Amino acid sequence: MIRGVDMPALSSRGVGADGSVPGILGLVSAVRSCKDIESACLLLESFLLERGIALLSVKFCDIDDRKPAIRPFGRYPCAISQLSTELRENGGCPLTKEAIRRLVPFDALSINEHDYPDFLSKRFLQELRKVDHNHIAVIPVIFGHGLMLVTAGLGDRDFEGGCRDQLVGAVCSFGVAIVHRFSEAAALFESEILSRVEARVLFLFCCGFNRGQIQEIIDLSEVTVAIILRNVIRKLGASNIGEAIAKVLAIGEIGNLQSPGNASGGAG
């Protein structure tokens, strides 16, 4: 379960008078009023900056890389941005490859350069180590065939404990809010097993959000959320929600965003 997630009381828009976003549900509420994904990413940047975290990039794509990706936000230095462009034309970026391989959040600076011996990938990873952060969190939000990949600089902080939980919680809820709000993103996250809403609800449940929080994130009643979860259990041929989660994790239908050693539970 994701613990330590900031969920204060919110106004209807969830944005402070100074433009700040007071909590995760405030961020989600604000995303609903955004006119485009770029504007929503600026809200996420502000939300994280208030917590001492620097948003570096946001990308939406499909796991099989068959549809055009959406890249609404980037704050990397020019050298890294240029290398990213070249890598897209020559086999793909190491961050995306690692995210799809691992299916869990990780520190970009933990990637072994020897696993990517080609010239462009090695240059990219070397430039990444020059960025003014001792740790760069990479958070893959995966459900259905879609992937939202967020990278964020943590400065001197480690990607663990409360820092990890809050960042992953914010990114997960933001990703689902974006997919729920914008059709161009939703098209990348189709599932062959679950309906669009079922996939989003189950993903959030896997992330540790409870039914009341899921209700706020995707604007459903708590009763509807409970019905959807029951339908998911039935559709997957599971005996309970724990078994349903195990099944979708096993087939890669949903990425595993739980902390190491705490990957088996959802919220009550």
Task: Summarize the model shown.
The chain has helices at residues 24-31, 37-49, 78-88, 94-102, 119-128, 161-181, 183-186, 196-206, 211-218, 222-235, 241-250; strands at residues 54-62, 70-74, 106-107, 136-143, 146-153.
Give a description of the structure:
There is one protein chain. The protein has a domain at 24-191: Beta-Lactamase (2-Layer Sandwich). The protein has a five-stranded antiparallel beta sheet with strand order 2-1-5-4-3, with helices on both faces. It is built from eleven helices and five strands, in the order ααββααβαββαααααα. Mean pLDDT is 84; it is low at 1-21 and 259-268. With 268 residues, it is α+β, with helices and mostly antiparallel strands.
Number of β-strand runs: 5
Whole-number mean pLDDT: 84
> Radius of gyration over alpha carbons?
18 Å
Continuous helix count:
11
Shape descriptor: globular
Describe the main β-sheet briefly: 5 strands, antiparallel
CATH class label of the domain at 24-191:
Alpha Beta
Task: Give me the CATH superfamily of the domain at 24-191.
Answer: Transcription factor LuxR-like, autoinducer-binding domain
Overall structural class, as computed from helix and strand content, comes to: alpha+beta
* Series of H and E elements: HHEEHHEHEEHHHHHH
Provide the spatial order of strands within the biggest beta sheet: 2-1-5-4-3
**Second CATH tier, the architecture of the domain at 24-191:** 2-Layer Sandwich
* CATH topology title of the domain at 24-191: Beta-Lactamase
Q: What distance separates the N and C termini?
A: 10 Å
Q: Which residues sit in consecutive blocks of at least 5 with pLDDT less than 50?
A: 1-21, 259-268
Strand content: 5-15%
The helix content is 40-55%
